[in-house]
Predict the structure of SDR family oxidoreductase.
Amino acid sequence: MTGSLEGKVALVTGAGSGLGRGSAISLAAAGAAVVCNDVAAKGLDETIAAIIGAGGRAVAAIGDVSRSADVKTLVAKAVDSFGGLDIVHANAGVERYESLETMADADIDTLLAVDLKGVLLCFREAIPALRSRGGGALIATSSVQATHSLPGCVVYAAAKARVIAAVRTLALEVGKDNIRVVSVSPGTIDTPMLSRDLADMNVADAEGFLQRVRDANALGRIGTPGEIGDVVVYLAGSSASYITGTDIVVDGGFTAVKRF
Ligand SMILES: NC(=O)c1ccc[n+]([C@@H]2O[C@H](COP(=O)([O-])OP(=O)(O)OC[C@H]3O[C@@H](n4cnc5c(N)ncnc54)[C@H](O)[C@@H]3O)[C@@H](O)[C@H]2O)c1
């Protein structure tokens, strides 16, 4: 397998489903060896099989990104399996569609632990490994909900907004080490999370609702995980060598239209 990321090693969290799987497959197709993480084995086999079936290199690494001991093992897995680490896509996330008024403490804690602390831990633990390779890229998955409000997503939006703030600030701390830090804010992407959101929202007419979602995008359609994966490959590679400390919106024009 040859590509723009030949010789690089990537860690993707939440790679057993949705955007993480799309990112892992895209990074591997570009030549990177990929450590594919998820909190449980379910889904990871399919991701690994897709990568290896296409001639790429990947290993599975189970762990909870909100636990620093687990995150340390993910970085160690990259070093042990492939000799180092150059790219992190801190993508694992959870969403709970519920108004703040009724949300339980435990659910607030979980959202912040996975969606915010999980990103911070992955970045923190990876920095020494990237520095020892002469630099690299730290990429987080944020969301358009960080900047565009949707009722029922208060805590999720707060976590995703803080990811963008952390990226901006961390870029200053590690830029001189040639480590770039970027977030990607997807709009609506067709993943299991979207299906669960629809179920949580309990909308009577799911197809009608989905059509409203499509109509809220300039392109008139929902995005695919591969369309995020392609952007991650670009941000991870040398073509993006002057991009750091910023958020890249990949939303089919959702934030431009803003009529949902
Ligand atoms: N799908 C969308 O429309 C959309 C839009 C904007 C942002 N996002 C973000 O994209 C990321 C991926 O979402 P998705 O749509 O692919 O969802 P998904 O539910 O399909 O995949 C998320 C994956 O993260 C894993 N995960 C959850 N908690 C974890 C933990 N503690 N440690 C390790 N892995 C864990 C899950 O097991 C799952 O495999 C999330 O951060 C999400 O907030 C999604």
